[in-house]
User: Fold these one by one.
Assistant:
Number 1:
Amino acid sequence: GENVEQHPSTLSVQEGDSAVIKCTYSDSASNYFPWYKQELGKGPQLIIDIRSNVGEKKDQRIAVTLNKTAKHFSLHITETQPEDSAVYFCAASLGAGGTSYGKLTFGQGTILTVHP
Amino acid sequence: EAEVAQSPRYKITEKSQAVAFWCDPISGHATLYWYRQILGQGPELLVQFQDESVVDDSQLPKDRFSAERLKGVDSTLKIQPAELGDSAMYLCASSFSGAYNEQFFGPGTRLTVL
């Protein structure tokens, strides 16, 4: 089955700096890659996603890049703010087709701390 | 804004007891997922429903866990008997359809087994 590795496990930055979190996946058939933010005591919330037919996607201060050849994707947060502090998870999915029905395989998570 | 509802939010039980968790997905979402999240790790899928049918329960410990979604709307996850290793956050998520659609997560149920 799919395996997703996420690095780093913890990341500490100063407010205004950029933060980058990287993930690799094992199944070359995976074609949907969402990123979730999880705050303490809450369920994960989708912040951005990318499909395999796109190399990069941006949404204000957040961007995701995908390298299908290398089977890795990254989350970039620019101009970080204290409220960005949370646990971030990457995930991979086979999307439609077969028996996957959109099952997500998650990475281990990155604890991001933004210091004022 | 529509949300996935879960109850209870917290549950403390003793090992060998039975526990049940309830989830009400966003209206109109055909696909419902139950995930288990151990502290410090990412969520892992336990079971996935498409309407009332189970489409993936390969990671569900079927000797003690059961899940149902009788009318294709809300769902119940049961553990009997609970073991110490079952202590975790149990998350429910739903999506409009299984593929390429955002999975909306509920707040989860934090289970502690003593």
Note: The mean pLDDT of chain A is 92.
Number 2:
Amino acid sequence: GDSVTQMEGPVTLSEEAFLTINCTYTATGYPSLFWYVQYPGEGLQLLLKATKADDKGSNKGFEATYRKETTSFHLEKGSVQVSDSAVYFCALLSGSSNTGKLIFGQGTTLQVKP
Amino acid sequence: DVKVTQSSRYLVKRTGEKVFLECVQDMDHENMFWYRQDPGLGLRLIYFSYDVKMKEKGDIPEGYSVSREKKERFSLILESASTNQTSMYLCASGESRRTVEAFFGQGTRLTVV
């Protein structure tokens, strides 16, 4: 079945460092791909999305490119801030889905130190 | 803004109790979901619903049931709580079956003792 794999955390960075969180997926057809973020004590919120190959999603300085050839959707940010400390989830929506059901990775905790 | 509200942030229940977790959304969304979140396992889908009185099993439905009597409300029921159901429970809603975005509540941290 469809699945999402994220890099193990936690990831600890200093402020202004470059961030990459790896995400790869297994899916039949043409899934849509997402990054969700969960700040401490809150629910998840959508960070960015890409619905077809070679699309680049971007928001709040974060970017991810849908790479069908490598089945990847890695999250990047050029300069992280302390306020970016959160748990990041990669997710997919199957291209054949008619339920709106998302499949999530295990989450990666990011801690940014001043 | 879409608002998804879960009735409790923290709950402590005893083993064997029947537990109700309530979720309400205010955007007339068709889809609603219940996930549980555990460290190292990410979010796992328990049940979902795409219409009133309709429900579908997710990946881990055992020990749970759901109720959707009104479009805006989706309840998760633990028939007889057990300690392995201690977890964070997240409710979400989505506009339709083909929606590309889900909106989440703030979560309920349930502890079963």
Note: Chain B touches chain A through 30 residues (CB under 8 Å).
